[in-house]
Amino acid sequence: MQSVKGLTLVRRYATSASTVPLTLHGIDGRYATALFTAAAKNNTLDLVETELNQFKSLFAREAGIKRFLETPILDRKLKIEGIKIILADGSAKYSQITSNLFAVLAENGRLDQTSKIIDAYLSLMTAHRGEVNVTVTSAKQLDTTILNKLKATLQKSSLIESTQKALITNKVDPSILSGIIIEVGGQTIDFSVSSRINKMNRLLTQAI
Q1: In what order do the strands lie in the sheet with 165-172?
Q2: What is the pTM of this model?
Q3: Contact indicator for 167, 126 with CB cutoff of 8 Å
């Protein structure tokens, strides 16, 4: 009966999403939006975020648990019992809202969406804090000084609003050879050497 109550809780709060900072689509977006609204009503946005990050860490440590929850062909009743055991683990206590979410997911056969829902909720929290995720891909790790200068430049650019804060993640990909690729707000700015070489190759191919 607890999972039914949890389902009612999430659905009720889902109808009042005026405070949600982003419009998300898909199954993961709907559940994440409902969770965000419920947590906002209870002033537990940060707590739920912490708990979901604990789940991400658990998945990273225990790949078997992730497979168990996210394999869609496994029996639903087995998953319901499994998530109860995980939530009851004494090493990590979860709030009622987070527990209700997983109970609802188990009841509805949506535990296979767990990772996507967690990431969707985290993206809502990022937007809620006025933050913008920026991914900078380089051939080798960039030092802090360069990243700080890049952050300062982006903060002054039209890519980021004056009220927003850039959160930079440096991704290493040796295949780009040199230069950088910046991804922010759904836009990609490619300053890599590999990109210039590819453009040159296309021009040469067209000329032949």
Answers
A1: 165-172, 131-138, 180-184, 187-190
A2: 0.72
A3: yes
